[in-house]
């Protein structure tokens, strides 16, 4: 709900909303009286113009008030890469050399602390800037604890997750539940697409023994490629390291994801700075959805990233690109 105590900016927007709304109402009421006496005069037209302007401004203040008062953000605090073999049954994950890698982020709304207590935290418009600063300085803004040493929060930023009249706990709980559901659907879609392309059924225990309590559907594209790599006749990777992010539907279409900036920054850090990340994976290409490509290129320029970003609209685009690569058997491991 609207925080009447801690959000003075929302009060400003609400006051302006009321004032401009009243002004619009009074102008049109006065114009109506004039119309009853004298029609299509310059005065009437002039006042109507200001009435329309006041109405437009009222709508703008209404939108600003809603966003200021009822928007919820989480802080995208860090990122990571995962071999997609982690998402399938271990007995099927090493049939071929190499793995595709999915990019992921850690968000404040689903943070788990070391004592296994679950803290789901989201922030209002007036709180988010301070929350970002706290994370960047190594503090958890909702506890007295310090951030775990293995998480690097220097690139943290806030991301809108919902506009809701519910309280923080409801918003965070709903977001986490939705994330779990999306992950399950993503796995199912990846299996469906892989089976369609391979022309055969994959094992019923495909996902047994793998983590099933993760959030989001952004691994869909890369998981599909991993399934095709492990169960197909071809070595899709040919010795290269390929990362990416993107959802996938049952038709193989690839769509947008959240946390794109952090994911690309993380991929670049892992590619170029093993001492910082504890990993040294020389990614040759990073797949993103065609819908995210413009933003990805903008992020690449702003952050000076050394990544080759490849847009894909459908799984077939990714496969065509992989097919075009020259085999590098000396890179296989």
* Helix amount: 40-55%
**Residue windows where pLDDT falls under 50 for at least 5 positions:** none
Kindly state the number of beta strands: 10
Describe the largest sheet: 6 strands, mixed
Name the strands of the widest sheet in spatial order.
5-1-2-6-9-10
Give the total of domains: 2
CATH architecture classification name of the largest domain = 2-Layer Sandwich
Shape: elongated
Q: What is the name of the CATH class of the largest domain?
A: Alpha Beta
Q: Span from first to last CA?
A: 54 Å
Order of helices and strands: HHEEEEHEHHEEEHHEHEH
Over all CA atoms, what is the radius of gyration?
26 Å
What portion of the residues fall into strands of 2 or more residues? 5-15%
Count, helices: 9
Oligomer: single chain
CATH topology of the largest domain: Ribosomal Protein S5, domain 2
Short description:
By secondary structure, the chain is of the alpha/beta class. The protein has helices spanning 8-37, 42-70, 125-136, 168-198, 220-231, 260-272, 274-277, 293-303, 315-324, and strands at residues 71-83, 101-107, 111-112, 118-119, 157-163, 242-244, 247-248, 254-255, 285-289, 309-312. It contains nine helices and ten strands.
């Amino acid at each position: 709900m609207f925080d009447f105590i801690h959000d003075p900016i929302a009060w400003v927007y609400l006051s302006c909303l009321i004032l401009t709304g009243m002004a619009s109402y009074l102008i049109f009421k006065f114009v109506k009286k004039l119309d009853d006496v004298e029609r299509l005069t310059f005065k009437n037209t002039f006042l109507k113009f200001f009435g329309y302007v006041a109405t437009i401004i009222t709508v703008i203040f209404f939108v600003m008030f809603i966003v200021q008062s009822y928007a919820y953000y989480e802080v995208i605090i860090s990122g990571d890469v995962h071999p997609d073999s982690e998402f399938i049954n271990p007995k099927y994950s090493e049939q071929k050399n190499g793995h595709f890698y999915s990019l992921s982020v850690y968000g404040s709304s689903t943070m788990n602390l070391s004592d296994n207590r679950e803290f789901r935290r989201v922030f209002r418009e007036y709180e988010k800037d301070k929350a970002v600063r706290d994370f960047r300085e190594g503090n958890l803004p909702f506890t007295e604890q310090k951030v775990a040493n293995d998480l690097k929060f220097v690139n943290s930023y806030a991301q809108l997750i919902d506009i809701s009249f519910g309280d923080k706990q409801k918003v965070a709980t709903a977001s986490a539940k939705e994330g779990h559901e999306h992950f399950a659907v993503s796995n199912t879609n990846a299996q469906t697409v892989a089976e369609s392309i391979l022309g055969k059924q994959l094992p019923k225990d495909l996902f047994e023994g793998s983590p099933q309590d993760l959030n989001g559907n952004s691994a869909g594209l890369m998981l599909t490629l991993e399934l095709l790599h492990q169960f197909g006749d071809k070595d899709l990777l040919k010795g290269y390291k390929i990362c990416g992010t993107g959802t996938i539907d049952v038709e193989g279409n690839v769509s947008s994801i959240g946390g794109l900036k952090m994911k690309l920054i993380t991929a670049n850090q892992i590619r170029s700075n093993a001492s910082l990340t504890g990993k040294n994976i020389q990614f040759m290409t990073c797949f993103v959805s065609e819908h995210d490509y413009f933003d990805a290129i903008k992020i690449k320029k702003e952050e000076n990233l050394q990544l080759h970003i490849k847009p894909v609209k459908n799984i077939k685009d990714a496969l065509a690109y992989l097919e075009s690569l020259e085999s590098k058997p000396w890179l296989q491991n």
